[in-house]
């Protein structure tokens, strides 16, 4: 009824780690993609109000992996 097709050439099976939405998903859990996390750590500190908002928006995507993120966000 739904006419769903699967492309086996594009499918991955029996993988220990899979990249999904800039995260690495494995049996150990979810972790940020190392390349994307490195790009976030290299961001320069903003000088304007709009820059701070953009900076926080970029960091918010990985906030679950940043210890005490809410404390740092409140300080900004």
Automatic annotation (TrEMBL):
Highest taxon of the lineage: Eukaryota
SUPFAM superfamilies, alphabetized: DNA/RNA polymerases (SSF56672)
Name the UniProt record assigns to this protein: Reverse transcriptase/retrotransposon-derived protein RNase H-like domain-containing protein
The organism of origin for this protein: Phytophthora rubi
């Amino acid at each position: 009824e739904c006419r769903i097709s699967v492309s086996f050439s594009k499918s991955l099976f029996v993988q220990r780690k899979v990249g999904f939405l800039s995260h690495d998903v494995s049996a150990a859990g979810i972790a940020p993609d190392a390349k994307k996390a490195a790009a976030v750590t290299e961001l320069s500190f903003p000088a304007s109000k709009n820059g701070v908002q953009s900076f926080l928006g970029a960091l918010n995507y990985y906030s679950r992996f940043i210890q005490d993120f809410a404390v740092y966000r409140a300080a900004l």
